[in-house]
Amino acid sequence: MVLRRALIAAVWTSVAYLCLVAAFSWVPPVWWFGRPGSVATEIVVGAGLTAVCVSSYRTQDRERPGARPAGVMAILLTSSAALAFSSFSRCHDPKNLPFVSAIVWALGTVRGRSQGYSAANGCPRVTPVALDIAAIAGSFVLYVGLIAIFVSVFSTEVDRMRVQVARSVTAVVDFDNDSRSLVTAVARAVRKDKSQLALIVSRGQLNAVRDLRAEGARVIVTDLDKLGSLELLPLWKKTRQLYLLTASPTTNLHRLAAIEARLRAVTNKQRLPLIVRIDDPWQAESWRAQRLGGSDPLWGASALGIYEVTAERLLDRIIATGQTTRVITCGTSGLTLALCADLRRRQIERGYYTAPNAPELPSLTIVAKNADEYRKDIDVYHRALGYSATDQWLTAVNELPAFASLVGVIKPEDDGGPAKDGEAGARRGDKAQTQPPDGEPATGRARAGADEGDTNGSKGLHRRARTLTQAWKLIALRASQRWQTPSRPAAADQNGPAVSAVTTGEVTAHGDGHRAADEPGHAPTEHRAQDALESHSPPGPDTENHGAAVIFALPAGQAQIDAMLGTRLAARFPTMPIFVQDPKIDPRQDTIAPLAGQLHTFRLAMNVPYGRGHDPWERAAMLIHERYAAQAGHDSDVTKPWAELDEFYRGSNRRVVRNTLWMVEKIARHTWDAYGTAPDEPVSAELTQAAPLQRLAVIGFDRDTAMAMAEAEHEDWARYLRRYGWRYGPTRDNTRKRRPDLVPWATLVSRSPEKVDGALDFLATTLYSLRELGLRSRPLWQRYRRIGDVTAKRHIRGWTWTTRSGEAMRARAGDWEVTDGDGSSWPLRNKAFRSSYAHLGENRWRPKADVFARAARDGEIVGTVLGQSVATASDWVVEGCQGERWVVPGDEFARHYQPSNPDATPAGG
């Protein structure tokens, strides 16, 4: 900043001095600087102006990315005009008026016409160097303007070229104001990975993406309404991550199908990170489970939505205070479900690893008319996901969120205990029908609170109202009442009527003010007077820490919720965090200090905190590393906390998680879709000390599968290290990037058999860690053998084949047409056919290899070698020894396939 200011001062001082030299003959040049025709002067001043223009443009680009370089043009115009005017300031004659002629000629110079301007007397006789510089600066104004127009018109084409030459691309398809902050977070992460971010938008969104260009995004304009245009973009082959962020999940899934079709044709990559925006929390969870447990290995898919991200952001702020033990959510919406899901996730993650000095997690209370219905549904849903019951941390109050009901939940001791499952509302409703222990009529006490505008529970108001001042007023009033007689007005004075009675809890004023103290249905006079004082003397703000925080799940004023309820709560409880939803605010205003108490406003938005994982795989990698690093003591580069960890080691942790997900599905034939299964039993101490193969067998991985997975993990790890420059060396040398174990698996096993146990132990530890984090697999595919001979014919030309469901598929030349005894036929690639069938003679063949099969899901799209096929609930998905898949109707599968292991349980059973 200091250097920049010094440069600006030096340049403008030089320009001012040249103006003086040109305008006044008595100002001499300094040696060569300022002499007419001095090239050195032109170079020095030109370089200075260029530096100032570059600095100005960079500042403007940071503040207003994508805007035209108005600052640069202003600098050039000002300097050119000043230098030209100074050069012509002394030139005038009878035909050329003083000052006016100088202005006209200066404007002409700025426009690039520096020749032909002079007075009749030949002024200026010698062209000053200031005029030469003015003419050059004026010309550059035109050039800069033309370049700015060119860049603004062709910037998207330049972005396309930069994406085409990039080695890897992270693609973001569409966005809106709610997801803009997520795009910014992705851009920062991609920039650290030295990848390229391609932001694919429609032409109407161009004006909204200028600031994102400053974050490194390259904008690709296409017609998003035409899936063909999206599919034909040339960047999909280089794509390593994909984000679909429009607000409509249906639109996102349609676009995903088009992109998938293109990707399958141009790449064989697996487990590409995929984030699809699905705002409904339960729909997002369901879609995640389906994709995680599906038959498509192309994606490592996850879903994200505004409710989930907002819930995470709110709970982060609440838990960080370390003083909150209960979160009270007012109203029911998608945010309510997301808060419950996020709190459950945090409990699971805390069970796996708890950072030092981490605050305790709060419980959650739902306050709404249908709160108990929500609580039961949430409990059923979480049990279906394999989690334990919610009754330890989730309660419900079946009341409309109002001041009195919320005060009773915030201060449950006033109602005789914490509110639970709607009991608080029942207790508060019963108090009007019971006699308080001090003998005061229930109706009087209930009305005393009502006269205050229902601003508190009656018993809580009665206790808090007894301040010292009120006590003295009550004593004085009682003393005056002893002197009253039926013939004299009760404490009446010239200021107004006296308070005389409370009828059914109602304060009334009368001119005569007298009622008998023993009149039936009325309390004694001193109790009535006490209630009257308390009803007109509300307590002050409650600054006690009640360990509560309030979140309004709906915008203020919706669902019959008082629009000022948040403000009233903040006035009564100024130290309690209160979060009120306001859809009008900027999502980045979360950091602004509250105006009243601890009343904060928030907006639903996908504002992911920087450095935080926004998908389950990133969080799993982060937590696995944090627990390992804590156990190791943070004493090396490998064991630094995640926030300080080098990107190479972060990527290695991500690789482990993603590769494990792939191995479990592809090698072990398990599914990650554990919806509806029973929760895991706690791991016994004996099992934690058992051999790796025994631990793996308990969760469904036999020895052969475990060895194959250990080999696949070693090979994937070796590929990752080689990509970052590591090579084999007889001894380990981190400086030169050498490792002795960077060899093929077979070589490692023959040289160091003890490494096998280490690899198996690492595999078991990773799988158990994922299970602790809620990512549980279960066996899905079972081994079957086809029974019955078939006939087969190889075609030398391509032909069209129609499935039983009526789908037309195209088989290519060289494929085999296989026909069974029922007359059903299907095509097979030559390699798959040769590995699956043995020749019996002529055109008869017998199955010789086992296949894997599982029950299909209704509507499931199965990628076959001939195209995509849609399965029904009664169908089976079969996979051959070459990885090819096809769909078999249920009745046909029952006739022609039998388990290879007769004792095995059918996959669909």
TrEMBL record:
<dbReference type="InterPro" id="IPR003032">
    <property type="entry name" value="Ryanodine_rcpt"/>
</dbReference>
<feature type="transmembrane region" description="Helical">
    <location>
        <begin position="133"/>
        <end position="154"/>
    </location>
</feature>
<feature type="compositionally biased region" description="Basic and acidic residues">
    <location>
        <begin position="411"/>
        <end position="431"/>
    </location>
</feature>
<keyword id="KW-1133">Transmembrane helix</keyword>
<feature type="region of interest" description="Disordered">
    <location>
        <begin position="510"/>
        <end position="546"/>
    </location>
</feature>
<feature type="domain" description="Ryanodine receptor Ryr">
    <location>
        <begin position="706"/>
        <end position="752"/>
    </location>
</feature>
<feature type="transmembrane region" description="Helical">
    <location>
        <begin position="7"/>
        <end position="27"/>
    </location>
</feature>
<feature type="transmembrane region" description="Helical">
    <location>
        <begin position="39"/>
        <end position="57"/>
    </location>
</feature>
<protein>
    <recommendedName>
        <fullName>Ryanodine receptor Ryr domain-containing protein</fullName>
    </recommendedName>
</protein>
<keyword id="KW-0472">Membrane</keyword>
<feature type="region of interest" description="Disordered">
    <location>
        <begin position="411"/>
        <end position="464"/>
    </location>
</feature>
<dbReference type="Pfam" id="PF02026">
    <property type="entry name" value="RyR"/>
</dbReference>
<feature type="compositionally biased region" description="Basic and acidic residues">
    <location>
        <begin position="510"/>
        <end position="534"/>
    </location>
</feature>
<keyword id="KW-0812">Transmembrane</keyword>
